[in-house]
Amino acid sequence: MTDDFYERRANGVREPDPTLGRRTRQQRPLPQPTDQAVVEPLPPAPEDEPPKPDHHARPKRERVILNDPRRGAGTLRARVELEEQTSWGKLLVKDHLVKVQLRTAMLLAGLVVVVFGSLPVLFYLVPGFSRLSLAGIPVAWLILGVLPFPFLFGVGIWYNRLAERNERAFVDMIEN
Amino acid sequence: MQLNPWALTGIVLVAVVTFFLGHRSSRSATSTHDFLVARRTVRSRRNAAAISGEYLSAASFLGIAGIVLKDGADALWFPIGFTAGYLALMLFVAAPLRRSGAYTLPDFVEMRLGSTGLRRFSTAFVVFIGILYMVPQLQGAGLTLATILPVPVWAGAVVVMVLVAFNVIAGGMRAITVVQAFQYWLKLFAISVPAFVLCMVFFAGGGPDGFRPLGAPAPPVFTSDTTVDVQTDVTLHVRSDTYLWAYGRTDNGPAAGPTHWTPLAPHTVSEGTTLKFLAGTPVPVVSDSVADNANWLHPASGSLTDLLQTYSLMFATFLGTMGLPHVLVRFYTNPDGKAARRTTVHVLLLLGLFYLFPTLLGALSRMYVPELLVTGKTDAAILRLPSAMLPGVGGQILGAVTAAGAFAAFLSSTSGLLVSVAGVVSTDLLPGRVRDFRVATGLVALFPIALAVALRPEDISLSIGLTFALAASTFSPLLVLGIWWRKLSWPGALAGMFVGGGLVLAALIVNVVSGYTGGWAPWFVNQPALITVPVAFVTTYFVSRATGYGRPEHVHDIMLRLHAPDPLGFMRDRAVARFGQAEEKTRIAGRGRHRK
To answer: pTM of the full predicted structure?
Structure first.
């Protein structure tokens, strides 16, 4: 496996770098997507290349991008709207997405803090509990040495799911 | 210790594979973009393996087993905290941080708060944290190499640093990504296989001297006649009258023959002393560790101080992980914010898998290598355990596997730290071209080597604890408040970093001084996070409230970019804006190769 596996695509067409061409004009709107494949002009050539008059000039290179179904016309409109910072767009990000994401993160962090935060106090106040043992292994060692890791992984998966759902819901909402 | 050809072979193999992988992937690294963030094209699974490989440092590979051997159940909070730190990072930082498009932590600071002064200040902290974290890695490397080869302790540090610097100079982030991902799997192998084999030995009858239960409320005992060479000055405690033979200096007087130690006072043993114990003698332990097995086995069985120390450790590790510059710089290599989150989920899995094993080996060490409690070199537990439990070639081979894993741990952590510090130095103090990155790497590499040779080899986990506390008290308020709170101002962030960082540094200095003058420092000097982190957050909050002029002008634009979902396409790459597009340069240079 070569190290730039990610740049290879099945038919030799490279996936466009999401940041490509954002250097010169940051607020350039994305190409107008339609239901067919679209033709996008290349971003301006880097300045290192001297503009030389070429007689048998090659036809201008064009990049062919297959349609991305998720990026509809609604997204574009919403994007422009958000970028222009209308009060609508401002409110939308602030009150919907950021608030929802922060609430999700806080809830899950609270869950973890409550679970882990209560354990030392529990062991300290109820010494008998830490002396229980299960098949020769002290329960405390199972609780502290094994169980936290599946627990943390589970919370991680859960958050990932919630966060992606929130983002999808936000995109859907501004598209409509 | 005697020459162990197996371990030497293992270490040489790891070094060769590391060098080969780094060399192979550095051929395609040509631009600043490659060197800083590996072109931001690292897939989440490989990135997760690389992050875990980088994160599982000497503190995780050797330190956790050592501290479990010494402190028992309370030490289990270390692996929990090390893992939970990634959950906190994922919940509050990962995706927005990647969407910011920054290429180093100081660059994020400038992007968010628009202050170049604050950028310089955070550069200083990144460099300091990076070097502070590298020192124990190098000291651990010295310790490992010195146990298998008759070389001085500094030799291992130099070998690791030279190898790492070579890879980093050749290919930067692009080279070490593959190396670190490989080293994660190597470390998992190197700790899980010995753990399985030694557990089987344990259940099959318990090694050379039979089964040894840990449940008894007595101190551990020597089960065979044991000779211990004390290589650094230690203070030992015994729990009952102990008869032994000492040759050298004990209790500030010469000793040459049988002695008797009472449990009434601690006993000092000087460097170069040899102690001999008969089978059945209770093991004296170094003064800061838990003496009897009952306290060792049960968590929080100590005083209220222990409880507070546990909470302090939780604060430091939960919030400190997100402030470690070498962890954050790996998140910039993700393609987008969503990938950054997915990477973290994978990291949680990989770390959880790994951390099951050091605990197990630490518990076995308590039974089979208690003499480490006498010398205080508990960090060597994982390296010594296999040959103690399984005499002969089998034990030697297993010991070689653990030594190779430890060596991989030093290499991967050091390379990640070196890349992050060199990236910051080359873009903030130098113009940021590839050549500057290489120069910065060479310069940065010198400082940790000098410190590793000069400073006293502390317990690896201890100084790592302070590093986490420092990261938690400086960068974590800045990141969390910067991402979620619009009213953060640069004077507020500066004040928070200054106060939090200053307090931790003060604790560090007091700790070192107290370590040289008899260990009088109270608990919060060892584990200051419980105090410093809230103080840093509160300072940041109130100073930001008071200095509304310090908020950036376009805070809404910035927030939009941090939080807008990736398909909307607001992400802008600051590295491309500053250093140009990586692929274009490659194409012009004519270095593009056709690949299969």
So the answer is: 0.80
